[in-house]
Amino acid sequence: MQETVKAVSAELQNYADRGIFQNFSLAEQASIGSMNYRFHWLAEMPFNLRLNVQKLEIEIKDVLPAVPFRSKMDKEFRSFLQQRSSESIPSHRRLDNQRFTFSCKNRQEKLSISIGFQSGDGGEAAKTAVNLIHEIFNNFLLEGPYQNYMVEFFNVPEE
Question: How confident is the model at residue 8 (pLDDT cuts 50, 70, 90)?
Answer without folding.
Answer: very high
